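User: For my dataset I need records formatted as: sequence, then structure tokens, nothing else. Please produce one.
Assistant:
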Amino acid sequence: MKATAVYVNEDKTFHVGTFPIPDLAGDEVLIRTHYSGISVGTEFTAVRGTRYYGEFPMILGYQGTGRIEAVGPEVERFQPDDPVYFRTSTMSMKVDGKEVLQRSGTWASHVIHSEKQRVEPLPAGVDGATASMFVMPAVGLNAVDMAGVRMGDWVAVQGVGLIGLGVVAACFLRGAKPIAIDMMPNRLDLARQFGAAAVVNPADGDVLEQVRAIAGSDGVDVSFEGTGVGSLIDQAISLVRMHGKFVYLAVYGEAPVATRFMPAHHRRLTAYYPCDDGLEPCREAVLNQMALGVLPWHKTISHKIPVEDMPEWCARILNRQTPELLGSVIDWQVPNPV
């Protein structure tokens, strides 16, 4: 039995290969992947070299959904055909005799997990493609929870890609009033559908003036910087009122990022670094919200990519040739010729 996987080499080329599936250890489960979520931000920082994750070749992917295909003799939580969602894979794979780094390895037709680690039952009522993108709204929810956003707060969300949209949705569901800031009209339209009280396009004028016209001259209670552009951090800080809160939502890479100290210092701001998806509580929460229909995350998926098209699709993402892209998933249920 073999697995199909998408891997990337040091020369930044993507390939589709097949790999033998090893025998399961006692507490391991073999999952047949239905959909793998694609992160155009964090995952591609490894390929672009802005963050170091380890040596190539590498299999990306940190989220997916599927069904249990086989279980080890000591497994108690799952049985074959159970629907699940998962965060990583521990399956050993080699290319030309060299071990492939699993980072985190969910771009594969099959993944192996201990039943005790990062694999959970998929809630009923949510489709697999939508659920396979669970990390982004979970990151947003974790950031909102960490910053203590409260009912009635004005919140600026600078950059409403998938994680920014997750922040907008989480703020709205808490009774806060999010203001979405982005250059892309399609993202702003979607932010409205996720509960944005107002939207701001920098092309329409000074962002600070636009935000203060909405939230008042004191500024917002909480500001999230979600673009990942270091030069825009100061702008996001400028939006916050005295004794407000600022959240470093995005990833800025390994290189130093310079910001102006005095504006945040004078306002006595509190800064937060949420970093991840809040682990299982946040993952479960957003998936339950999807299942109940209060988080219409299916609207964020603009592309479903068959595995044989992944090398070309990844090259387009890497070269920033996907202006129409919002969210995309690998569809492993489409037959492929590999």
